[in-house]
Amino acid sequence: MSCSSSLILPSISSNGFRRFCPMKLDKSRVFMSSISVGSRIAAVDDALFADYKPTNAFLFPGQGAQAVGMGAEAQKVPAAAELYKRANEIMGFDLLDICINGPKEKLDSTVLSQPAIYVTSLAAVEILRAREGGQQIIDSVDVTCGLSLGEYTALAFTGAFSFEDGLKLVKLRGEAMQDAADAAKSAMVSIIGLDSDKVQKLCDAANEEVDEADKVQIANFLCPGNYAVSGGVKGIEAVEAKAKSFKARMTVRLAVAGAFHTSFMNPAVSRLEAALGATEIRTPRIPVISNVDAQPHADPDTIKKILASQVTSPVQWETTMKTLLTKGLKKSYELGPGKVIAGIVKRMDRGAEIENIGA
């Protein structure tokens, strides 16, 4: 997700787009870094960031945060607007037009929402950079993470891979997840008002009534009182039918293609592994907390394995946020569309300081 200290400086080429030349730059611009092909990366201690002490964090949203109209604000900032131009070349169509004008059904599709959120979230970094004091805020960030898809955005921000390579990975990830969802009838539902133990018991009760192909499990550990369950459609229907008897406040069927972060996504793993294997990933310049184990990883090969397994592993967001807050995190910034992450953080700690930077 070359040497991390060799960064790039944009200059304008004859066709009006920026080209990127290796140079020493400030650490915050790492996510634009270039690739040095054929170089051998020395082994890195994966525990390099194990003793991290967070002060300021960048938090990046995942699928579901998208909304028609996003990206419009970014057009006022040249560096942010250019990200969409570069994205259009990679995607092969006008991604910005879909972000701004929809239709909603198209933007909500897995294959489009994931790249759209990735680009919009990194555009939000440029919007922040352009405002007074913004560069100082970016320089102060010493830890980052993202919700599911947002982990790729976080890795791009830290220079683990280039903007372009990250977008190519996210594009393939969305396509592979959509194809896996199409291969079996599956769904996701949010359970509101229960702790994780109760949700697990609800899943166990539902699983007693369905075949193996429709089993369910907790897929997103978001925060106390908000957990997402994934599985076969019949299993999800059983969860919904039993939720009130377990004293759940409500259930909300999620508008996603299928049972993300479960074995239903197994068909996507090999495609992701192949794409990650062909992508140069460098050690992030600051800790990126993984969704899989709520730990930061420094070794590029380990990061590749983590990203491949992420689509079938439950998202450990609750543990991640608890750890950051316990370790002394002072302020967070949610960069990108929506305010989902801010809501989660506030639910876990009402006194937590978090600012939204939209695009």
Automatic annotation (TrEMBL):
Limits of the Malonyl-CoA:ACP transacylase (MAT) domain: 59-358
Q: Name one Pfam family in it.
A: Acyl_transf_1
Which Gene3D superfamilies does the record cross-reference, listed alphabetically? Malonyl-CoA ACP transacylase, ACP-binding, Malonyl-Coenzyme A Acyl Carrier Protein, domain 2
Organism's domain of life?
Eukaryota
UniProt xrefs under InterPro entries: Ac_transferase_dom_sf, Acyl_transferase_dom, Acyl_Trfase/lysoPLipase, Malonyl_CoA-ACP_transAc, Malonyl_CoA-ACP_transAc_FabD, Malonyl_transacylase_ACP-bd, Mitochondrial_malonyltrans
Q: Known NCBIfam families for this protein?
A: fabD
Family label: Belongs to the FabD family.
Q: Which PANTHER family match?
A: MALONYL-COA ACP TRANSACYLASE, ACP-BINDING, MALONYL-COA:ACP TRANSACYLASE (MAT) DOMAIN-CONTAINING PROTEIN
What name does this protein carry? Malonyl-CoA:ACP transacylase (MAT) domain-containing protein
Can you name the source organism?
Solanum stoloniferum
Taxonomy of origin reads: Eukaryota, Viridiplantae, Streptophyta, Embryophyta, Tracheophyta
